[in-house]
Design goal:
Blueprint (H helix, E strand, L loop, with lengths): L13 E7 L3 E2 L11 H14 L6 E4 L4 E5 L1 H9 L4 E8 L2 H14 L5 H13 L5 H8 L3 H9 L5 H8 L5 H8 L4 H14 L3 H21 L13 E3 L6 E3 L10 H33 L2 H29 L1
Parallel strand pairs: 2-4, 3-5
Antiparallel strand pairs: 1-5, 3-4, 6-7
């Protein structure tokens, strides 16, 4: 945007304005609401047929226009080669881009916890805001913001499990109390495997911390794992044998279990039929044992008959 095109900056001013999409900036650090897959196609078709009905929220800092709420709408309009879009423009500061996004991103739908952590961390480190100020201006509880920063340095697998909603935030907070990252990962496996309640996670973490502290005080070194033979377990479905570490536990109802066994029986029958076909093809190529026996017996009879005939002829000549 050229200097001539820049509008006058008036802090707090709000207006509806027709904006060129190329002038809109989507910040890298932001909370993005996750759109369910079943709505994405409808979303694209609605913009194609009716345009963007709900104008994105944009903050103008006197120099650039930052998209606070409406990332999906702006990107889809750009993908459909639309050049302009109606926006709600608010004159504000750069820190308000993050503050408003932190609020609207969560209200619009499910957002990634890791996105929220990045935004809060950006406000604290770059814009020098306290958690109390962030809580006051966004409506979030102070304890919740403290918990977000507490898990910021957790093992990446814990943050990934949070984003996928495989574990609750409370469980992640407890796991982050473990000072050793490898121990965090092992504990996370238990939480996933046994679907532990937060109270049980807390008890487990307390025990792990106690063991680590005891080792530290006694100067005990971590024992080296003893190599073990590879344990193979037979799959109940296909019958194949695989390493125990690769096997999975399924939680299914009786009805679904019956369906699984029916699939197994049907699959076994198909395998047996294929095996029979292969054996028949091999027999045709090499000859069946019965056919080989008959041919062998027939050849023996021919040889016996020829030997008898030659003997008779020799007696007559004599």
């Amino acid at each position: 945007m050229s200097v001539e095109e820049k509008e006058k900056y008036e802090y707090g001013k709000i207006e509806r304005k027709r904006m060129k999409i190329r002038d809109l900036i989507i910040p890298e650090v932001r909370v993005t609401a996750m759109m369910p897959e079943e709505l994405q196609e409808f979303f694209r078709l609605s913009i194609k047929s009716q345009g963007v009905l709900n104008p994105p929220l944009v903050i103008y800092d006197g120099d650039k226009y930052y998209v606070v709420d409406g990332k999906h709408r702006v990107e889809e309009a750009r993908n459909q080669n639309q050049e302009e879009i109606d926006c709600i423009v608010r004159h504000g500061r750069l820190d308000e881009v993050l503050l408003f996004n932190l609020t609207t991103g969560k209200l619009q739908g499910r957002g990634k916890v890791t996105d929220m952590i990045r935004v809060v961390n950006e406000l604290v480190t770059k814009h020098k805001m306290s958690l109390e100020d962030i809580a006051l201006k966004t409506g979030y509880r102070l304890r919740y913001l403290e918990d977000l920063l507490a898990i910021a340095n957790a093992h990446p697998d814990i943050l990934d499990a949070l984003d996928k909603e495989e574990i609750p935030l409370g469980a992640a907070i407890e796991l982050t109390r473990i000072p050793d990252k490898d121990a965090q990962l092992r504990a996370l496996w238990n939480v996933r495997m046994y679907r532990m309640r937060i109270s049980d996670v807390k008890d487990m973490v307390d025990q792990i911390i106690g063991i680590l502290e005891k080792r530290k005080q006694q100067g005990e070194q971590q024992p080296q794992p003893v190599p073990r033979d590879l344990v193979l377990i037979e799959c109940n479905i296909c019958g194949g044998k695989y390493p125990a570490k690769d096997m999975r536990t399924l939680i299914v109802c009786p009805r679904c279990m019956n369906m699984i066994w029916e699939w197994k029986i049907a699959a076994q029958k198909e395998l047996e039929e294929e095996q029979k076909k292969k054996e028949m093809q091999q027999q045709k190529q090499l000859g069946s044992p019965e056919r080989q026996q008959i041919e062998s017996e027939g050849q023996a009879e021919i040889e016996l008959s020829e030997s008898q005939n030659s003997a008779n002829e020799s007696e007559k000549s004599s």
